[in-house]
Amino acid sequence: MKGFIQRIRRAIIFLSAAFFACILSVLPLQSAYANSAAPWEEGVTGDGVYIVRDESVLEVQSEKLTFDIQTLPSLAQGQIYDARVTAEYTFYNPTTESLTTQMAFPFGRKPNYAEYLSVAYIEDPVLVNGQPVGYDIRHTYGRFTEFYESVSEIREDYIADDFYVPDLPVTIYTAKVNFTDSADMDGKVALRLDSAPALGEGTRCMGPFSLDRETSDYSVWQVVSDGESVVFYVMGEDVPLDGWGWFTSAWSDSENAHIAVQSDISFSSSKTTLGQLIFSNYSDEYQISRVDWYNAAMLHKLSVERGEFSYLSWHSPLKLEAEDFNAWYVYTVQTAPHTSFTNAVTAPLYPTVHFSFDPDVYEYVYYLSPAANWADFGTLDIVVNTPYYMYAGERYNSATFIRTEGGYSARFETLPDGELYFSLCSVENPGRDNNGSPGENNPAFAVIYVLIAVGILLVLAVVVLTVIFIVRRRRKCAQKEDASAQTDGDERG
Predict the structure, then answer these.
(1) Range(s) of the domain holding residue 408
(2) Total domain count, the chain
(3) Confidence class of residue 384 from pLDDT cuts 50, 70 and 90?
(4) Can you state the angle between helices 2-31 and 443-492, rounded to 10 degrees?
(5) How far, CA to CA in Å, does 288 sit from each of 51, 164, 291?
(6) Which of 230, 218, 242 is nearest to 191 (CA)?
(7) Average pLDDT, stretch 145-171?
(8) CB 356, CB 430: distance < 8 Å
(9) Strands 117-119 and 79-81
């Protein structure tokens, strides 16, 4: 009996080893389908026309969205790219007064992959009743904000604040850290300041500070390398940071605590103003007005202080990059009483590219919900002119589209709930296997699934047979014992 159990154990071990060997043998096949690059390249969300100031009494009788997508963006250098969307509105002025309305249409930030594209020029992006109208290209801060949140930031003047003014003095301190003793140092070294002296109303700090909003105390915990420099900003009345209680520490496994690390911390400083600091990264080549640049920096800084973006307080919210901005067409329309007019705006399209499919899938997002802010909204027609296939995934509402000779279309008698999502691909049924994700076209995963099923069945079969054998063996032993006992009883009798 013991010998049989040992043979069963050896059989299970052998089957398990064989099973995992088969799995390992197909892993190289699977890795051939893996892509070490990011699983997607983020695109730009589309949106409709906004009113820059206040609410509008204009009614939208109808809207037609036309997506002309004859090319999909490629990472090949110099591709001529002309995909675009045109939002055409039919507005109606229901009042007895002439209206002058300032409108804004966002076309967002360029995605990272735009540097590889040669984007086709749009000659007349804004039309009213079929005729070109004048427009300005304006910019607002674009990171971590939606279009509807920033349209009100379009303004003609510089933002005024009681504390932050362009000529506000700013002292830039640079702390350089050199380790002199790194013994017993297991973790990363941090430049630390547990508490700072109380600051007056005329001083504010910026940089890698953590601010306790209840006590207004600053503290610092910044990981540094040997010889690294850390930059701090003191705005308003200067405070000598080098006189504060700076030190460095690291986690020690042997001490199970943070221990001091001997270091030399030296400070240097320079003077500037708030305006000079804000425009330190500015260039006329960006084609962003100085008003938009300054206001974006100020609005972002004030948002950080209000705690709306508290996790960004470790960075300098005043030094912006051109990639931080959303772009807008801004134009003015005059409307006579009880009259209708058409307004068409065209902008380039930049989808999110999902590399996790084979071939890639391109996701387009267009916000419909802001249209609910108009006084009234009528019908919505959507046309997608494209030779490509619409992919129906979990997040895409392509089921609302019907196939047409030139692509796809959809019609709504009223503004639909939610936003517009659809995706395109060069094939009708792409596989999802480029990053090793399960996909119908990935043979590695098909083999793995079969092996897992076979392995589970084999192990279950061995366990069942073992149980059956043990039960039968015990029954036979019990029968022999009963027979032996019967024989002994007969002999005694």
Answers:
(1) 44-144+322-425
(2) 3
(3) very high
(4) 180
(5) 21, 21, 8
(6) 230
(7) 82
(8) no
(9) parallel
